[in-house]
Amino acid sequence: MALRKFIIERDIPDVGTLEREQLRGAAAKSNDALRQIGPDIQWVESYVADNKTFCVYLARDEEVIRRHAEISGFPATRITEIRKMIDPTTERAG
């Protein structure tokens, strides 16, 4: 089964105030959970705001994302599957 793209919104109070070392620790924790789960999920990138993160993942389904949240300890407050992408060049696409 092909991996689908999701955005995971995680409510994490004061995450935007974390220092680089704390963010490194969070990334290590997430990566450890990913290794435990295997090839059904991949972390692409995350955007850190004041009190939440927005994470882009490739995953088999929502269930595997919830499993990652459970193992890592990072909440998956809202999971949204991405159906299509557009960018400034979409206007010119044929």
Structural class: alpha+beta
- Give the oligomer, counting copies of the same chain as homo and different chains as hetero: single chain
- The mean pLDDT is 96
Number of helices: 2
Mind summarizing the main beta sheet?
4 strands, antiparallel
Report the helical percentage. 25-40%
| N-to-C span | 29 Å
Radius of gyration: 14 Å
**Uncertain runs:** none
H/E topology pattern: EHEEHE
Strand order, largest beta sheet: 2-3-1-4
The percent range for strand residues is: 25-35%
Structural account:
With 94 residues, the chain is of the alpha+beta class. The chain is 31% helix and 30% strand. It is built from 2 helices and 4 strands; from the N terminus they run βαββαβ. The protein has a 4-stranded antiparallel β-sheet, with helices on one face. A hairpin with a 3-residue loop joins strand 2 and strand 3. Helix 1 crosses helix 2. The longest helix has 18 residues, at 20-37. The radius of gyration is 14 Å and the shape is globular. It starts with a strand and ends in a 13-residue tail after the last strand. The mean pLDDT is 96.
